[in-house]
Amino acid sequence: MGQMIKVGMADLKICKAPDALTTIGLGSCIGIAIYDPSTKISGLAHVMLPDSTAIRNNSNIAKFADTGIQKLYDDMIKAGANKARMVAKIAGGAKMFEMPGASTSINVGDRNAEASRAKLKQLGVRLVAEDCGLNYGRTVELYSETGEYYIKAVGKPLKII
């Protein structure tokens, strides 16, 4: 077992087996895991918002699904990952605050998940599993040896996707 590398909020990192990546406290945020099973290069991004184009003078590309996933993908290709073999798994996108009478258009979690799916599709990265929505936060761990994506939530059994 290698080291566990922490990915902060609005952050992204890549690693190679035997190392693993983790990010804690995914509420409405999405943890996007991309993995190349052949080179065992993995990447994890913790995105907070769906669309960078809505904000001017944006310098933090990892904060947004559109730019964060693009950067993660580019970094993995640079590190030697093969785009034809890359697969993705996503988790998070919870509805953390139930607002009576609120329309779904303000549900950032849903929009983050949708934007993440759309960007992966645009890049041609197959989304093979996801654990999104509901109303609880998640901590995730991506193991580059196996590509397993562990999802932990308080009071819930460990889920591996």
Characterise this structure.
Helix content is 19%, strand content 34%. It has helices at residues 65-78, 108-123, and strands at residues 4-6, 11-16, 20-26, 30-36, 41-47, 87-92, 126-132, 138-143, 149-152, 159-160. It has a five-stranded mixed beta sheet, with no helix packed on it. Strands 2-5-4-6-7 form a five-stranded mixed beta sheet, covered by helices on one side.
Strands, total number: 10
Rg, rounded, reads: 15 Å
Treating each run of at least 4 consecutive H or I residues as one helix, how many helices? 2
CATH-defined topology: 60s Ribosomal Protein L30, Chain: A
Q: Class by helix and strand content?
A: alpha+beta
> Sheet with the most strands?
5 strands, mixed
Uncertain stretches of 5 or more adjacent residues: none
Mean pLDDT metric: 93
CATH class: Alpha Beta
Rough shape? globular
DSSP helix fraction: 10-25%
Give the topology string: H per helix, E per strand. Answer: EEEEEHEHEEEE
Q: Give the distance, in angstroms, between the N- and C-terminal Cα atoms.
A: 19 Å
Beta strand %: 25-35%
CATH architecture: 2-Layer Sandwich
* Number of discrete domains: 1
Question: How are the strands ordered across the major sheet?
Answer: 1-3-8-9-10
Protein name: Probable chemoreceptor glutamine deamidase CheD
Catalytic activity: L-glutaminyl-[protein] + H2O = L-glutamyl-[protein] + NH4(+)
GO biological process, one term: chemotaxis
InterPro entries: CheD-like_sf (IPR038592), Chemorcpt_Glu_NH3ase_CheD (IPR005659), Cytotoxic_necrot_fac-like_cat (IPR011324)
